[in-house]
Amino acid sequence: MRGKSTQPFNLKVIYVRNALFIAVLLITMRPMKKIFLSLVLGLSLTALAQDAAIEIDESNAVVNPPVSVLEKEKAFLSAAIEIPDVVALGNEVVFDATPSKIMSLSDFGNPNYSWNFGDGSDIKFGETVKYAFTEPGVYKVRMKVTQGAQSESIEKSILVYTKQMVLITDVLEETLASVDAEAAKEGILLNVIEVPKDSSDLSKEDSVIRKFQENLGTFSDSESIIFYTSSTQTIQAFAQFWNLIPAESPFDFKTKLLVQISSSSLDRDAKLIQPVYEILQPEFILLTRPEALNPIFTRDNISNIYSELNLRGIEVKQVDEKSRIPVYLPFSRLLNLFTSSGLSQTVIYLLLSVPFLAFMIAFFRQFVGVSTFGVLAPLMLALAFLVLGLQFGMAVFLVVMLVSWAIRVLFDKVELLYIPKVSLLLSCLALSFFLVLGLAVYFEASLDLSLTIFPMMVMSSISEKFLSSQSAEGIRSALIAVVETVLVSLIAYAFVDWNLIKDNVLAMPELILLPILGTIWLGRFTGLRMSEYIKFRSLLREDSQE
Predict the structure, then answer these.
(1) Taking a C-beta distance cutoff of 8 angstroms, is the pair 240, 205 a contact?
(2) To 10 degrees, the CA torsion angle through 500, 501, 505, 506?
(3) Interatomic CA distance for residues 512 and 356, integer angstroms
(4) How confident is the model at residue 153 (pLDDT cuts 50, 70, 90)?
(5) Chain segment 308-359, per-residue pLDDT in tens
(6) Residue 275 to residues 206, 234, 321, 336, 339: CA-CA distances in angstroms?
(7) Which of 204, 233, 256, 355 could pair with 200 in a Cys bridge, judged by C-beta atoms 3.0 to 4.6 Å apart?
(8) CA 338 centroid distance within chain
(9) DSSP-assigned states of every residue in 241-267
């Protein structure tokens, strides 16, 4: 018998060596002998291969211990389950423990599975069981698997709900978590849709509407839609979203409760939400305070919620047919008609903000004495900030100024007439905006890029003013004028973007008479500007001493 070899057996070498030997013999021998020799050598080669395989197995047997021994040394039990996070009350649920990792059945025996559903019911046994909860709430389901002397358990919460609600919010996560827990305790599945606080920007409104479109099925399944936002702009965007749905709407708001949670004046918010009521046509829209959430969660029907909140002393207001705008406010009624017909309130506010922007710019030029590139340039720049948002708007403005400066340096070496130079400048600016749009796409900015083109092109008009001022007064004076123009535009933008101004103007658009009257007063102002008082303070001091 051959001795045990410690080197691994190479079958490829054996097959190649014997194949070459057979080929040489077959070439040199007669046909009958060739056939006989082929059979003999084939049988011997097969036996050799089997012998080699046996030898390899025996060699491995010396090195490796039995597999079952390793399994016993490394065996461990791991519990895992598959159950839904939420389930409607009364629906039967399958509780599955098959993802659990068990040990060898031959060494440790069959595993035992036990289920505790956390509702006081009897414990069930089995790898897969079915169960239906009889009461709403949040339950902790516990599964324990036992095999041999080892046991493991796992626990997971499940919400059993009786009704669904939608919460559209921009509040902090801490507040949101407490509201969600309060709803779950009452057996309510609260579908949360988070929106940004600055969703009132025209550039962000479209992204909010798209988010509503993605959750259309959730709105249909929910019996209440709650808006817990810092302003009424989100519920107004919801009305615009509803206007985009075809006439055959998937559900009727008559059977749903619409609530706006507000921390500001309910009377003012009621005027802002009145167009929303005209579009959605619910039974009513409820305006109330954050402390009304618990009564809303525990209510039985829509009709008694208003009286219940009044009994609890919670401030509440109802928007319905009785709260429509009176006849003696014709401009408010006209804008309400426009909004009810589908025109965005954000677009309406852009138009209403122009008298305020014009007054602010005229005030700084005429009363303060700040030099800007006229009135139109800072006005359009402030409107561009409103449309694009402050951050993206400033990025576009910086691109405009950098490209203008680069073209100035380039064109200084080439003699061109003024008008062709400005035309080339605007063309280069338009092409440079592709870089800005590319960055917006790369960073996934929540902008409707189709709305950004014209504000960006409007900004390019400042570059023409810059080149004209530079040619007439020099680079220093042109840069000072640019800084003052941007400064005045930012102050005017901050004023009209203030929620207090925005909400009050939309609630009572007749307020635009105030900046118009203020502009008339500035037109009749004949005194010294504030900058002139500073400039000539020494002369004024001497006059007063004399």
Answers:
(1) yes
(2) -50
(3) 7
(4) very high
(5) 898 889 999 999 988 888 888 888 888 888 888 778 888 889 899 999 999 9
(6) 19, 13, 11, 6, 6
(7) 233
(8) 29
(9) HHHTS-SS-SS-GGGSEEEEE-SS-HH
